[in-house]
Design a protein that fits this description.
This protein has 318 residues and is an alpha/beta fold. The chain has 11 helices and 11 strands. The chain folds into 2 domains: 128 residues, Rossmann fold (3-Layer(aba) Sandwich); 159 residues, Alpha-Beta Plaits (2-Layer Sandwich), CATH 3.30.70.
């Protein structure tokens, strides 16, 4: 649970709105975080440099230097460059969101916001970056690890390690997991994800690029999804993820994070694609409108089609 993951984490809030900073601070401290507040960009940068936190929640509309400049300075400094940054801003234009992500932030939330969603996104952000829990120098000694353990800690997963199923096997295991789901305590979410730039990626000459995009999608999903998630290739442009123990809203956070991280990857040199975007459709069981594995698949596909037909680059939940 997020409350356990966040316990002991050190979070820095950089926001000149005292009321919002107080709400976020109190919510995170309730979960066991240590929270510091920088009321201006300059103060926040100095606080981060002097004692780098585990994660930074950053506003954009700050006096003197704005949040974009704060993020640029943090990412230019070796001690703060690895610290994950989540923008929390009233600005809701696509250009601001893209600018923030290209500066190195891992996420972008819009005010007014839901505190539970912010907590989930902080939890995901820490796991994406693999931020280790910082122990207290006064109370704990460094942990001795073998070379094999150290390698596991520092070596990121690669797509070669992700078990990606073919279409038929993926749907077969979907049916198997659906039949075995405990209707009282079980929870299973099916997500279908489609590349929006299908027209630009048609043809054999783009096969390698399509495979690279899917390779990167699976790598990111493997980092974000809980253990036990099944991944499958549905087509050259569509993949699936069967996610246990997550409701559709939790899956939405994962898919939005996938979209944010994939948008940071530049495929322009290989094609006329400046940025890859994704349509995402999600369904969950148990559900009063789903009575079979086939209906589960159909509802998730229907959600995906709604996302595609509404312009793409979004998540639809059914």
């Amino acid at each position: 649970m997020a409350s356990e993951v966040l316990k002991g984490r050190r979070i820095l809030i950089i926001d000149d709105d005292i009321a919002i900073a107080t709400v976020v601070k109190q919510g995170l401290e309730y979960l066991g975080c240590t929270v510091a507040h920088g009321p201006t960009g300059e103060i926040g940068v100095e606080m981060a440099k002097s004692d780098p936190p585990d994660l930074i929640v950053l506003d954009i509309s700050l006096p003197n230097i704005d949040g974009f400049e704060v993020c640029r300075q943090l990412k230019a400094e070796p001690t703060t460059e690895p610290v994950p940054v989540i923008f929390l801003s009233a600005l809701n234009e696509t250009k601001e969101r893209v600018r923030g992500l290209r500066l190195g932030a891992i996420d972008y939330m819009v005010k007014p916001f839901d505190m539970d969603e912010l907590i989930e996104r902080i939890d995901i952000g820490l796991r994406i970056k693999g931020v280790p829990m910082r122990s207290s120098v006064e109370t704990e000694q460094p942990v001795e690890r073998t070379e094999q353990e150290e390698e596991k800690l520092v070596k990121p997963k690669t797509a070669r390690e992700v078990d990606v199923l073919g279409h038929d096997k993926f749907l077969g295991l979907l049916e198997d997991r659906y039949r075995k789901l405990d209707p009282e305590n079980g929870l299973l979410t099916l997500a279908f994800i489609r590349i929006d730039q299908e027209d630009q990626l048609m043809g054999d000459e783009h096969t390698e690029l399509r495979q690279k995009i899917q390779h990167n999608m699976f790598t990111i999903l493997d980092e974000l999804c809980p253990d036990g998630t099944l991944f499958g290739t549905v087509s050259s442009f569509q993949v699936g993820a069967l996610i246990p123990r997550k409701n559709k809203y939790g899956a939405e956070l994962i898919l939005d994070e996938l979209s944010n991280l994939l948008a940071l990857q530049d495929f322009h040199s290989e094609n006329e694609i400046a940025m890859v975007t994704l349509s995402r459709g999600v369904a969950e069981v148990p559900s009063p409108v789903i009575g079979s594995a086939k209906e589960f698949e159909e509802i998730a596909n229907s959600a995906l089609q709604r996302a595609v037909h509404s312009g793409g680059d979004r998540t639809v939940l059914l």
